[in-house]
Amino acid sequence: MTSAPADSESGPRRIGALAASALVVLIAPPLYLLLDLAVVGRLGARELAALGVGTLMLAILSTQLTFLAYGTTARSARRFGEGDRDGAVIEGVQATWIAVVVGLAIVAAGYAAAPAIMRALVPDAAVAAEGAGWLRIAVFGVPLILASMAGNGWMRGVQQTRAPVVNVVVGLGLAAVLCVVLVHGVGPFPRWGLPGSAWANLAGQSVTGLCFLGALWRECRATGVGWRPDRAVISAQLVMARDLIARSASFQVCFLSAAAVAARYSVAAVAAHQVVLQVWEFLSLLLDSLAIAAQALVGAALGAAAPARAREVARRVTVASVGLALVVAVVLGLGAGVLPRLFNTDAQVLDAIATPWWFLIAMLPIAGVVFALDGVLLGAGDAAFLRTATLGAALVAFLPLIWASHVFGWGLAGIWTGLLVFMLARLAAVYWRYRQGGWTGQIGAAH
């Protein structure tokens, strides 16, 4: 048992420490993916398009279980706030059991279905075949990707900041080196092309996952926490998982629909869409680092029955998130003529990138508020509201505009208008919930 965090441990310095740790952990995978896109992009537009769709499918197969990170953070933080560190670690053990069992099932299903999925998404047969080959290699890393999510969840809950950074940097540092040498055949290494990217991804994700499992084993050994599955804890986690999975699925359906529509325009359009989408994902996780700090601190504050402290954390994180979003928007605007060339040099792809690039810039200040308040509400255990709000925004705003773009030929401008309206709808929902104040009454809801 440990004492609950004091008020001083929820101030700007603690928010900064948690956000800095989360920042490295969150941006390392998309930063690696940006490197991967840049390396594979030198092979040609076909390989870049195949990698874009392949990585999108890997994300869909693996990130439907984001509750392993976000739900576990909320539940572990609540227990840590109550002074029960062992209980917070137990949450991590049980989340890891879910990660391994479900991850193995995803490997089997993803490997078998990869060719059919790619043919359904991409009309170009060559792009579909290369994307399926990439996915069939990379999918074997899913169990350890999910174990990493669970590890991040309980470590954030107990406010550990160093170990998650080390685990991620070691694994993805290895992947970055392998990506360059295996795709293009540097030195004594063979030139494997696009499959080299998949093998590099698998190696890096596996090392990171094993590092998180090792950290959990050491914590259990030191505290005496057992490894056996606990049906009661797993059942409680799955209640929150139900809402977070539905929320995550709505995101993936939207982005999958957008990719499918973009693919029906041209290879250049789908390549351009995926490049800007990956930049968006990278910047979203940059903002989410502050939201995760809010999640851990709000959960701990409500666990300690201190709603005033939770509201102060929410205010501070939102102000910081909007400020960061505005700075990034200015940088992207000033670099609009240069930055896209880091990912591709094909004239048609660069021309297509220009439209979604400016939509991305316009969305960033909105995202600053949305992501911060998402973190606050997740920390409060308000997952049911977030599920309903996100599903509503997807069904009313995003999906109708995506498919209207296909019917009426609006191109990438139509697709990204749908994303912009989706963000505005989410902004209205989470701001209303925050102002309404019901989330502060979620004390004890995590148990």
UniProtKB/TrEMBL annotation:
GO MF assignments: antiporter activity; xenobiotic transmembrane transporter activity
GO cellular component terms, semicolon-separated: plasma membrane
Residue stretches spanning the membrane: 15-35, 47-71, 92-114, 134-153, 165-186, 198-217, 253-276, 282-305, 317-337, 357-377, 384-404, 410-432
Primary subcellular site in the record, as a coarse category: membrane
Family from the record: Belongs to the multi antimicrobial extrusion (MATE) (TC 2.A.66.1) family.
Classification via NCBIfam families: matE
Name this polypeptide is given: Putative DNA-damage-inducible protein F
Species this chain originates from: Gordonia crocea
